[in-house]
Amino acid sequence: DVKVTQSSRYLVKRTGEKVFLECVQDMDHENMFWYRQDPGLGLRLIYFSYDVKMKEKGDIPEGYSVSREKKERFSLILESASTNQTSMYLCASGVDDYEQYFGPGTRLTVT
Amino acid sequence: RKEVEQDPGPFNVPEGATVAFNCTYSNSASQSFFWYRQDCRKEPKLLMSVYSSGNEDGRFTAQLNRASQYISLLIRDSKLSDSATYLCVSEPVGSARQLTFGSGTQLTVLP
């Protein structure tokens, strides 16, 4: 059974703080993704990675960066958190072209 | 215009009813389409793929109409456990493993 885990379910941070969201998958998937989900907007792709040390911008990369030092781990970094980054963050992994397996999500609140 | 558009609902139907959702996509070159299901406060999970020839899985039937650029999902004999948000998903051509998610249609099946 594929398992994608995220470091926190709920997180509260202050404006300007640096925030790290960690994602780990246990199925040796090559592809990993970070999305944010907001009411009425659906899931929007922030960044993705096809391989270790490789990253590609998604639709809304501004204000975010990522790191993939190991195949199983994909980190999302908010360099200086802002209130408009309050959202649900979902990590996903996959090996083929369409099925992505999602983690449980991190609900981040920036105050 | 959003690349994938869905009626957000909510659709409230009695148990045993048949319900259908439509979804339109704007990129005529999109190659692959899917339905994902997201339960309340849970992560999205792949429900089924959508083919031009139609795809049936038990009580669920998915259809693709390329000429009109819409995808449908039909649920027969609705169960209480079908209550969820249904996400329409496309894989635009050239996107290579990136998925575009609609904002979802909320279904509540009532006893």
Topology of helices and strands:
The complex is a heterodimer of chains A (111) and B (111).
Chain A (H helix, E strand, L loop, with lengths): L3 E3 L3 E4 L5 E7 L5 E8 L3 E8 L6 E2 L6 E7 L2 E6 L8 E8 L6 E2 L3 E5 L1
Parallel strand pairs in A: 2-11
Antiparallel strand pairs in A: 1-3, 3-8, 4-5, 4-9, 5-6, 7-8, 9-10, 9-11
Chain B lengths: L3 E3 L4 E4 L4 E7 L6 E7 L5 E7 L4 E3 L2 E6 L4 E6 L8 E8 L8 E2 L3 E6 L1
Parallel strand pairs in B: 2-11
Antiparallel strand pairs in B: 1-3, 3-8, 4-5, 4-9, 6-7, 7-8, 9-10, 9-11
Put the structure in a nutshell:
The complex is a heterodimer of chains A (111) and B (111). With 111 residues, chain A is an all-beta fold.
Q: How does this model look, in words?
A:
The complex is a heterodimer of chains A (111) and B (111). Chain A is mainly beta and 111 residues long. Chain A is 0% helix and 54% strand. Chain A is globular, with a radius of gyration of 13 Å. Chain B has strands spanning 4-6, 11-14, 19-25, 32-38, 44-50, 55-57, 60-65, 70-75, 84-91, 100-101, 105-110. Chain B contains no helices and 11 strands. The model of chain B has no long low-confidence stretch (mean pLDDT 91). Chain A binds chain B through residues 31, 35, 40-45, 48, 50, 58, 90, 94, 97-105, and chain B through 4, 8, 32, 34, 42-46, 49, 87, 89, 91, 96-99, 101-104.
Could you tell me the strand content of chain B as a percent range?
A: over 45%
Principal-axes shape call of chain B = globular
- Number of helical regions of chain B: 0
> What is the helix fraction of residues of chain A, given as a range?
under 10%
Using a beta-carbon cutoff below 8 angstroms, give the protein chain pair with the largest interface and the number of residues from each chain: A-B, 22 and 21 residues
Please mark out the parts of chain B with pLDDT under 50 across 5 or more consecutive residues, or reply none. none
Question: How would you sum up the major sheet of chain B?
Answer: 6 strands, mixed
Q: Structural class of the secondary structure composition of chain B?
A: mainly beta
Rg of chain A from C-alpha positions? 13 Å
DSSP, total strands of chain A? 11
**Uncertain stretches of chain A:** none
**Strand composition percent of chain A:** over 45%
Rg of chain B, alpha carbons: 13 Å
